[in-house]
Amino acid sequence: MPRHDHFSTRSIHVGSEPDPSTGAVVPSLSVATTFRQEGVSKPLRGFDYSRSSNPTRSDLESLLTSLETCPSATVANDARHDASGGESLVFASGSAATAAIAHWVTLNKEEGGAGGKDGKGFGGHILAVNDVYGGTARYLSRASRPTGLEVTYLNMEKAGEKGIREAIRPDTKLIWLELPTNPLLLVPPVRLISDIVHSLPSETRPLILVDSTFLSPYYFTPLIPTNGEHPLADITMSSLSKYSSGHSDIILGSLTISPTTNKLRPELIKGLRFLQNSMGASPSPRDCHLMIRSIKTLSVRMIKHGLNALRISNWLSTKTNLIEKVRYPGLKTDNAFEYVQDLISKNAKRELEFLGWKFPFNKENKDFDIDVDETNLEFTRNLGIPFGGMITFTIKNANSKQVEKFCTELRISILAESLGGVESLIEVPYGMTHAHLPQETLNELNITPNLIRLSVGIEDYEDLIEDLEQALEIAMGTEKATVD
After folding, report:
1. Is 176 within 8 Å of 152 (Cβ atoms)?
2. Labelling 379: which of 8, 113, 136, 359 has CA 20 to 30 A away?
3. Residue 43 pLDDT grade (very low, low, confident, very high; cuts 50, 70, 90)
4. What is the b/e burial string over 2-29, where b = at least 16 CB atoms within 10 angstroms of the residue's CB?
5. Model-level pTM greater than 0.90?
6. Are 411 and 457 in contact (CB under 8 A)?
7. Does domain 298-476 fall into CATH 1.10.540.10?
8. pLDDT-based confidence at residue 80 (cuts at 50, 70, 90)
9. What is each CA distance from 227 to 58, 185, 223, 231, 342, in whole angstroms?
10. From the CB of residue 277, how many other CB atoms can be counted at a distance below 10 Å?
């Protein structure tokens, strides 16, 4: 009888089988670099050298595959192993995962690659959303040049169906999306893009990759089909260093292939395993072991990140006249909100329904009591839908010195790059994560010196608001940051 384990149960148990020799409920950490073989080229359990594969890494890969691809009804009977048919690969960093999948585009077909421009390797084309993480843009546009890779950056919201179809070339092997994008928190029309791609011949169509780092599989699972349709994506990429780690103490990255794509394109996993081994971007087993531990609390952390971010984005939008251009896709006044209703995972919906949310979300809730206290959960439910912990905003008419003053006067939120930790982190993309982009690109994307990216942690909401308020007052020289 197939089991019916949900997200939190799987995040705790898949890949965490008690040690068979001691009974320890925490799986052993395998630090060995090499493994005894039963005969010539006859490794035990398939392990021969830890750069190629390692038991602890394999446990983490099984866990990630389950969370990214596995519907609740598809779990092994022992509840410890993934049974979805998907595959995951863990790398030493998110950037290493980026390098591997980009190199796969240019790899010849004999090695399992996409074949590049003509099937023999070298060249090939990636169509990417125009607002991507700065490190992704750096690799695709600069580091990959010797491979002949060509990249087109497209504003897919403005392009529409006609523009997207015209941008797909005969040698387009991959469509690269972020959801939401970094740093502007745009939500590309992923369902439209998926429908366009699946209207093309299945054997030669480009694959769709979604970088879901900002959401984690808790909020977004594009590899799981909905309503009997095809999955929205073929591959998810994640910087596990962020929400999956959750404590700003591990650097790892991953690629996960959907079960559907794994059957349709079996050469994909072959090529990626070849690159993972050949490029040497293998993760430390110690980091994998710690990541397995961290993911066990992913769901309880993500719901608090989302609740805090929803409330703070509302405060920034309505309670101060020093802030403008607030972006949080889960806020019902955000331009991307209608997409969020369609994209949020079944798991997140299930947990939010327990907290009183109703789907589809009613933006014009006539039953809402406008006099309800803002500390009441009913008030929060009327603001929108928790959807990750990332917010962007601009400080109105602030110059660079005022922006820096704001960031350094914060008592709780820390001025630092990265995101997704239990602690709130704040940064200025123009001068930090995206500073290496050409000025023309920064202008085009409207990444300005007064744009702030806030990774909302799981501290108490009241303390975070008080901290933001006092830093704004000091930076902008005003007695009161809030409006009545």
Report:
1. no
2. 8
3. confident
4. eeebebbebbbbbbbeeeeeeeeeebee
5. yes
6. no
7. no
8. low
9. 31, 27, 13, 10, 12
10. 14
Burial category of 278 from C-beta neighbours within 10 Å (exposed 0-12, middle 13-18, buried 19 and up): middle
pLDDT, tens digit, 9 for 90 and up, residues 449-461: 999 999 999 999 9
Output the DSSP codes for 149-160.
-EEEEE-HHHHH
In contact, 311 and 376? CB cutoff 8 Å? no
Side-chain-facing half-sphere of 284: CA atoms under 13 Å: 6
Per-residue pLDDT for 228 more than 70? no
Contact (Cβ atoms closer than 8 angstroms) between residue 403 and residue 471? no
Q: What are the helix and strand counts (H, E) for the chain?
A: 17, 12
Q: How confident is the model at residue 401 (pLDDT cuts 50, 70, 90)?
A: very high
What is 7-19+29-295's CATH topology?
Aspartate Aminotransferase; domain 2 (3.40.640)
Other residues' Cβ atoms within 10 Å of the Cβ of residue 203: 7
CB neighbour class for 461 (10 Å; exposed up to 12, middle 13-18, buried from 19): buried
Domain range summary for the chain, segments of one domain joined by +: 7-19+29-295, 298-476
256 pLDDT higher than 60: yes
- The first and second tokens of residue 259, run together, are 């079960």
The residue written with tokens 């909100």 in the block is 337
In sequence order, what E strands does 248-365 have? Answer: 253-257, 323-327
> What confidence tens digit (pLDDT) does each residue in 122-155 have?
999 999 999 999 899 999 999 999 999 999 999 9
